[in-house]
Amino acid sequence: MKYRRLGRNGPKVSAISMGRGATPVRFDTPEEAEFNAAIHRALDLGITMFDSSDAYWGTRHEVLLARALKARRNEVLITTKFGNIDLPDGKKATNGRPEYVHQCCDESLKRMGLDVIDMYFFHRVDPNVPIEETVGAMSELISRGKVRFIGICEASAKTLRRAHGEHPLTALQTEYSLWFRDVEKDILPACKELGIGYIAYAPLGRGLLTGRIKSVDDIPENDRRRRHPRFHPENLAKNVKLVAELEAMAKSYEATPAQLALAWILARWEGIVPIPGTNNAKNVELNAAAVDLSVNAKDVARLNEIFAFGAGAGERYMPNALKGVGI
Ligand SMILES: NC(=O)c1ccc[n+]([C@@H]2O[C@H](COP(=O)([O-])OP(=O)(O)OC[C@H]3O[C@@H](n4cnc5c(N)ncnc54)[C@H](OP(=O)(O)O)[C@@H]3O)[C@@H](O)[C@H]2O)c1
């Protein structure tokens, strides 16, 4: 593994870190054993940052992750998030009120059996609460010793600046991949300027860039990605054509398309850390190995051409979730 510093004064973390897998896991099932095996393989390969949220798998992910990491807690950084709320009617809400920040942090600490959260993220900006109030409350968590570093997700460059002015942010966590490059316009430059690290989520385009999804039938039936516009049949047909070019280039490196997609991200800026999501130990190994894949400048330029702005088909979220990003 190789290691990178997140933000100007943040921690060093594994250059490839780990996100939550796409398939929800229930307690005390064979899937939990697979989940644990994937986490333990990641630890053995030197992966040190593990991402969660109080919104993942109805809070189960936080519990499972903390359990799986318990024996080696001192070797890792656990990131979790608050404020992205799934309402019972399927709608989305967000809450950045200071008292809610404190409440969520206490609940996550209790659920995970931790004394401190290494990096705490505001999962979605609340349009009804000034970001300074939310980040102000997050900075109180630091002074009370409950959180070590803070960050926000999916904020606009303007909000990022305001938030960072209230208290230095260690990282922004926002989607970034060959398939979704809009952040290169103003968000990544703002991170570079302000010295804020960038955690790239969905670096494999939610599985699209692995080459394993050629039709919607390749996505499990109850998987919410079936509703994501990028996988709608007419968009997927276009996206699969782009991925075919990635697959062809990956072969010339004796790599998988997912590895090439990760290597491309790592080459963008040394302040970026991708967090591919998986519950699968074999995929953890493949992802970790991408740190050693060096893509030549000609191929990077070719990938930039294939996956130019606007080349990917479909919005990256369903309309209700899309309203909550870039605020
Ligand atoms: N801050 C936010 O708002 C936000 C939003 C979304 C996600 N996230 C975080 O970002 C993480 C990553 O995003 P994501 O999981 O949605 O998308 P992703 O990492 O782009 O793709 C995950 C998919 O790729 C597959 N995969 C992973 N490694 C692979 C490999 N080496 N070969 C083939 N397939 C592979 C996984 O399948 P298997 O499970 O079968 O391996 C899964 O279906 C999440 O897990 C979460 O922690 C954050």
Whole-number total of structural domains: 1
Poorly predicted regions: none
Which architecture does the CATH hierarchy give at level 2? Alpha-Beta Barrel
> What is the count of helical runs?
11
Task: State the CATH topology.
Answer: TIM Barrel
Q: Tell me, what is the CATH class?
A: Alpha Beta
Derived structural class: alpha/beta
Give the rounded overall mean pLDDT.
Answer: 97
Strand order of the largest sheet: 3-4-7-8-9-10-11
Q: What is the overall shape?
A: globular
Q: What's this model, at a glance?
A:
The chain has a single domain, classed as NADP-dependent oxidoreductase domain (TIM Barrel).
Describe what this molecule looks like in 3D.
Helix 1 crosses helix 2. This protein has a single domain, classed as Alpha-Beta Barrel (TIM Barrel). The protein contains eleven helices and eleven strands. Helix content is 39%, strand content 14%. A seven-stranded parallel β-sheet has the order 3-4-7-8-9-10-11. The mean pLDDT is 97. The protein has 327 residues and is of the alpha/beta class. Bound molecules: NADP nicotinamide-adenine-dinucleotide phosphate. The site of NADP nicotinamide-adenine-dinucleotide phosphate has 30 residues, from helix 9. NADP nicotinamide-adenine-dinucleotide phosphate binds next to helix 9.
Describe the SSE topology.
Elements: E1 3-5, E2 12-14, H1 30-44, E3 49-51, H2 60-69, E4 77-82, E5 84-86, E6 92-94, H3 98-112, E7 117-122, H4 131-143, E8 147-153, H5 157-166, E9 171-175, H6 187-194, E10 197-201, H7 233-252, H8 257-268, E11 272-274, H9 281-289, H10 297-306, H11 319-322
Parallel strand pairs: 3-4, 4-7, 7-8, 8-9, 9-10, 10-11
Antiparallel strand pairs: 1-2, 5-6
Helix pairs in contact: 1-2, 1-9, 3-4, 4-5, 5-6, 7-8
Residues 19-23, 51, 123, 153-154, 173, 201-207, 210, 212, 256, 258, 275-280, 283, 286-287 line the site of NADP nicotinamide-adenine-dinucleotide phosphate (NAP).
